[in-house]
Amino acid sequence: MTAYIIRRVLYAIPILIGVNLITFMLFFVVNSPDDMARMQLGDRRVTEEAVVNWKAERGYDRPLLFNSEAAGLDRVTETIFFQKSLRLFAFQFGASDSGRNIGYDISQRMWPSLAIALPVLLVGLAINISYALMIVFFRATYIDIGSVVLLVAMMSISGLFYIISGQFLIGKLFHLVPISGYDTGLDAIKFLVLPVLVGVIAGIGSGTRLYRTFFLEEVNRDYVRTARAKGLRERVVLFRHVLQNALIPILTGVVAVLPLLFMGALITESFFGIPGLGSYTIDAIAAQDFAIVRAMVFLGSVLYILGLILTDISYTLVDPRVRLS
Amino acid sequence: MPVVLLTDAFVFLLIAVAIGFALYARRHEHLSAPWRSVGRSPVGVGALVVITFYVAVGLLDTLHFHPRLEAVPAVPADAEAAFIGSQAVREATPDRLPESSPEAEPDAVWPAPATGPAPRYSAQVLSLLDVLLNPLRERQEKTFSAPFATRSFVREPIEQPDGSVVRDFPRLIHGGAHLADPAKRGWDILWRTLLGLVKGLLLWALLAAALVWLLARRRGQPPRNLARAIAHGETELPWRVALLTLALMLMLMMVAADLSAKYYILGTDKVGEDVFYQALKSIRTGLVIGTLTTLVMLPAAVILGIMAGYFRGLTDDIIQYLYTTLNSIPGVLLIAAAILMLQVHMTNHADQFASLVHRADLRLFFLCIILGVTSWTGLCRLLRGEALKLREADYVLAATALGVRHSTVIARHILPNVLHIVMITLVLDFSGLVLAEAVLSYVNIGVDPTMNSWGNMINSARLELARDPVVWWSLAAAFGFMFTLVLAANLFADVVRDAFDPRLRALR
Q1: Which of A96, A206, B330, B475 is found 20 to 30 A from B103 (Cα to Cα)?
Q2: Which residues of chain B lie closer than 8 angstroms to A35, CB-CB?
Q3: If you average pLDDT over residues B393-410, what whole number do you get?
Q4: Which residue in A36, A158, A164 is closest to B482 by CB distance?
Q5: Which long-range contacts (CB under 8 A, 24 or more apart) does B128-137 make?
Q6: How many domains would you assign to chain A?
Q7: Is B443 in Cβ contact with A285 (below 8 Å)?
């Protein structure tokens, strides 16, 4: 098992290098740092001096890959690729284009993100699984058909609609909770209720439909027929046999997204003014802060790969039929 | 003079591919049989009718041309300039309050477009849809007005005949301008709605009669019997559902056409543009993103996926590495990074683009590519798995043993047997991509802000919910149009998937 995990982690390294190369190409080769400086400084008639200053302040004045002016090892280290891209591997995110420490910001902002994403995941999971079970229990009745129509309709509604109408209805019409903002400690709860609610409702359509197909797949298997033939009641069959087996794909799917919860929900956070990593990313995109976007791309890839590894491990733990190879 | 924008060219290519594929599928039972079962599903047929209406609008909006100089009288050209100008103003100052909006005639206040006066007309790019909707496109109010309103949404100082100035809601320039007494608006709307319904029904009756006659002739059946069979839903293909949906859509269309001639049926936005026109123009953007995204990455996904599965070994490793790497970058961030870089490029090379339209079009195409880059990996992986299975099939082994070249084996034996996966992916991805466009445009990393799209409509309207009374019509229009398309696409995709996936069929 340990050897397997180590091999999987080692396998992640070339992928991360690939990610790094792609972002490096996107950010520094497609457009030169000069182009970025001009864009940031805004004016087209910006002086050469201002561009040089802007680059020097942010460390973009080095050569891209190879520094012929330096000596020894510095030839490789005193380059943009080493300073800006390779350092990400040590989680040294450096300073943002506006001069803030990205690593510190991330460590502060990941907790509000988690405070939204985790309840959305858990509550959503509970609701989706119970709803899907109910549909399967009443399969081939009007409840089934009506539910499927409802789910498809809910899936077809844009996520933006849930956010906007949720804020409008609950925040503005009924004045139940604050519309947006955030607070520390327990006071945060009243700010979190609305985003969590919106997140859960927005996920019901696709989530329940997916779980319904999982359940339906299990319901038609031989062991279910055997259980029914034994004379077990439908309720027992569903909850003891079908649910347990269908939980395997559901849980491994959840494990895959667990690490990504830190990244936060982009739109929800920025709309409700939650200072999480999602709104951090959105703000960076709006302010065209390339350093932050670069850091978030790397962080996202690391978490995604972590999720993949966790999924593989959890498969072997939950399902003894899967062997490590 | 016709103009073919980059995305237009790809839409035409898509149509050519679709026709070619349809001809190919007709001759191959394993591809045509599932489509026939799609045709027998009432839900599928109903959804298809709705989608057809959207596609028709989108195609009309794809035929672009430069209007001829002498054919365009001076006045519409000015309105056109104001139109472009207003788009530019909106882009420059998105949070400008309507109270401070220019109050004089549009062409005096709007900044002139960047192009000079003489080539201005020929630089205009219009589409066939623009010509059809000319009255909607050209009329413009000063600012917001509610659906069917006759008066503006915002109070303005109005000079009375006796010289005094009163702050009141002014009459709209175009909306309900034909009414002598705005209080009688209800009767007028009712009358026009009825007229539209009758027109729609007449049109439908004409089409339905033609259809029944054609079908009856083909089958050698008396039309009366066939009509009765359709009415009772006894035909093999669900013609009844198709005709009912068609009737509904036609009546909606005619009522909307009749009403929008004299009213703003979905209100006007901040700069006084017709929201209904914007929503119709947005259809093309949504369709282009939903279809071209899959199309542009299709060759790469198919070739790489089949190669990985067929050759295995080092090829497989490299291709797997490639798509795992691309997949591990969070999609939104990759799109954001790419669009930011495109913006940098466009700002620094602004002189390369002939007009705003070309610039917006390039950005739309680029968005399709980058969305494709983030989504092709799923298809690639599916195809790899299928190719892995197929290469062990007896007929492939036989072909290999007979010394058939790899390229021929792939083209003749592997590719035809994975086509259904390609098709299902194309259909399944569509609705997700339409929704994704709205989210991306909302974060300003989607289509160009000057382009009509549902995401841009939502983005510019979201702050207006804070007003009292609420400005809801822009949001409602965008969400409504988007919902109808996505719902139809989702229902259709379900039917297609069920038809192609024998395992799911067995579950029923």
Answers
A1: B475
A2: 344-345, 348
A3: 92
A4: A158
A5: B128/B60, B128/B61, B128/B63, B128/B65, B129/B57, B129/B60, B129/B61, B129/B280, B129/B281, B129/B284, B130/B61, B132/B60, B133/B277, B133/B280, B134/B76, B135/B261, B136/B260, B136/B274, B136/B276, B136/B277, B137/B83, B137/B274, B137/B277
A6: 2
A7: yes
Looking at the structure, tell me whether residues A276 and A166 fall in a common domain.
Answer: yes
Q: In terms of domains, do A48 and A143 share one? A: no
A:224-243 residues touching chain B, CB 8 A cutoff: none
Task: Kindly report the average pLDDT of chain B as a whole number.
Answer: 81
pLDDT digits (tens, 9 = 90+) for B126-158: 888 888 888 888 887 777 888 877 777 777 777
Nearest-Cα residue of chain A relative to residue B462: A164
Give the pLDDT confidence of A75-115 residue by residue, as tens digits: 667 777 777 777 777 777 777 777 788 888 888 888 888 88
A161 vs B: CB within 8 A: yes
Q: Which of A36, A156, A305 to mutate to test the interface with B (most CBs of B within 10 A)?
A: A156
Say if residue A52 is in the same domain as residue A85.
yes
Q: What is the mean pLDDT of residues B92-100?
A: 39
Range of the domain at A56: 18-90
**The pLDDT value given to residue A115:** 87
Give CA–CA dist B380/B374, Å, rounded. 12
Task: Say if residues B154 and B269 touch (Cβ distance below 8 Å).
Answer: no
